[in-house]
Structure formats: structure tokens, C-alpha cells
Amino acid sequence: MLNKIKQFFKGFLTMWGPRQNFKLGLYGPPNSGKTTLANKICIDWLGEEMGKVSPVPHETREVNIKEKVTIKAKDGRELIFNLVDTPGIATKIDYEDFMKTGMPATKAKKRAREATKGVIESIKWLDEVDTVLVVLDGTQDPYSQVNVTIIGNLAARNIPVLIVANKADLKKYKVKKVQSAFPQYEVLGISAKYGKNIDKLYEKLFELAK
Amino acid sequence: MVTIQFVPYTEIENLSGLGRIRKLLNIAKTNKIVLLQGRLRKEEETELIKTTMEEIDKKFKGIELAVINPSQTAKDEIQKFKYGFLNMFFGDTQGMTIIGPSSIVKSIKKDPNKIELLTKGR
């Protein structure tokens, strides 16, 4: 009920033009490239990175916010938003998985503890974001329940969503598989690392913000 | 040996969201795979993940989760209409939910045509 009231007021406030200063959330499973995408957006428009990336899952264990990111369209329009990079959502976290990467036990246990808190934070932030890019790894199975749950939850809250199939630079990448898993959503294939289709993503942000 | 516990929807129907999550998670925490008739609500699914994270400790490392929603597997518009119509009357009783403790279930692979439940070797 509270969400419906929030959505009503958001809709009311945005009747006269695109939203300014809205919160754009980056959601997805661990290691899908959310922070890599956040870094790309921040480098392109602010000239600085947002967070550290790593091949070991759960590198981002806290919600990071970059305020007042301003992007410009070719026709001169501007879009200002607060970028919210969230920790990857998972249903299981085992410190022993971190140890397999060569991490010492104490550090792995600490990372696991922080990662569980990160997932909880991400879920709590679902109440705060206005628009979401669901960042999926285009080389992985898109039918994972975490993906379905995140997207279904956003739909239930009437939050505009764009699915971003990341890692288009890798051989195993299959954007069509992501598209067939979520036929009711628009899926944009990108490589956040190399900037492939990033201009298309910026154009889509203007559409999402309407 | 892997134990699967079937939970009919009637057992959770009158419980609160938190009550439903508690019941299902309690079963999973006893190292049993839960086979629930029907589905949780979307917000309950997210709450299940959140509660799971809050309860991770030395013994409990989390869950594997899969939800089968017949309206999402509909092959054509007629089937979509049929399941949409059934949903109006039977709601969340449609479909099936599998919750397995990650100490037993390595992964659940789901695509529209099959579900594979991979268990850990002991």
C-alpha cells in the first residue's frame, strides 16, 4: 500500500516532464558487472570511477551512491540522477567458496558476513529506487530464480526496468537466451567493460525516466 | 539420502507472509528439500531471500530456490489466457516452488522445458 502511494506521488510529480534527481538502481546477481557499468557511466559523465571491481563474487558489499550524475542527449536534453550501485543478490553465501580463490579463512569469513549484509541492504533499497537497470551476465543461465525474483519484484512495485545483458565481449555471450527468458521486457546487450552499446543505454535512460 | 517434504498450499494459505517464510525456511534448515504446492507472493520471495541472508551461519549457508509459474511457460496466447483466467480464481496455488538447503542442493537449473536439481555428493 505504501509503495502504491509512493508511486502515485512520483507519477504526479513527473507529469510535466522527465524526472530529475531520480534514483537509478543497478540490480542483479553477483559478478554480472554492475560496478563495471557504474564505473563506465561515472567515467563517461563525471570523469571518475565509482567502485572497485574483482573477479571474486561479492566485491561490492555495500550500497554505493553517486549523486547528481548528469548525462546529455544529442539534442541537448539533460538527465540528472543519483546512481545506486547495489551488492549482488544471492540466495546462498559460503565462505568456503571464497577460500577456493586463495583467500585466507579469516578474510573469507569476513567477506561472507559482509556479503550477507550487502544482499539485505540491496533488498531494502528496492523501496528507494525509482528506475532500475537489471544487469545480467549474458554468458550465464538467465533463468536463475534470483533474476526472476528481482524482476518480478520490480514489476510488482511498478518500477520501470530495463534488462541489460552484459559481457557482450565474451565468447559464451548469448543475448537471445536472455531475451527469450524475459520476453515481456526490453533487453539491451552491452559490454560495460569496453563500452559496446553504451550510447544506446544512455538513450534508453531518457525513455525510462519519462 | 535426500529427503523431500511436500507442503500443500493449504498449510500456508492462512499464514502471514512472515509465517509462510518461517515455515518453509524451518523445513529447509533441517536439511530437507521443500516442495511447495503453489507460489509465494513476489514480495514474499524477496523476503525469503532477505531472511535467508539474516540466518546464514556456520551450519546454514543459504538456499537454492526455483519457482515454476505455469502462466510464464505458456506457449501461445490461448494458454496465456487460460492460465491468466485460472490465476484469477486460484492465484498462487498454481505452480510449484522448490526450496533446497545449499548444503544439499548444489544448483537448480530451470528453463521452460525442464528442471534439473543437482545435489552435492556426500
Features:
heterodimer; A: 210 residues; alpha/beta; Rossmann fold; 6 strands; 38% helix; globular; B: 122 residues; alpha+beta; Methyltransferase, Cobalt-precorrin-4 Transmethylase, Domain 2; two-stranded antiparallel ribbon
CATH class of chain A: Alpha Beta
Percentage of residues in helical conformation of chain A: 25-40%
Shape summary of chain B: globular
Q: What is the count of structural domains of chain B?
A: 1
Main pleated-sheet profile of chain B: 4 strands, mixed
Under the CATH scheme, which class of chain B?
Answer: Alpha Beta
Task: Write up this protein.
The complex is a heterodimer of chains A (210) and B (122). Chain A has helices at 2-13, 34-46, 95-99, 105-124, 145-156, 175-181, 198-208; strands at residues 22-27, 64-72, 78-85, 131-137, 161-166, 187-189. Chain A has a six-stranded mixed sheet, with helices on both faces. The mean pLDDT of chain A is 91. With 210 residues, chain A is of the alpha/beta class. Chain A has one domain (19-208): 3-Layer(aba) Sandwich (Rossmann fold). The longest helix of chain A has 20 residues, at 105-124. By secondary structure, chain B is α+β, with helices and mostly antiparallel strands. Chain B has one domain: Methyltransferase, Cobalt-precorrin-4 Transmethylase, Domain 2 (2-Layer Sandwich), CATH 3.30.950. Chain B contains three helices and six strands. In chain B, helix 1 packs across helix 2 (42-54). Chains A and B meet through helix 4 and helix 5 of A and helix 2, strand 3 and strand 5 of B.
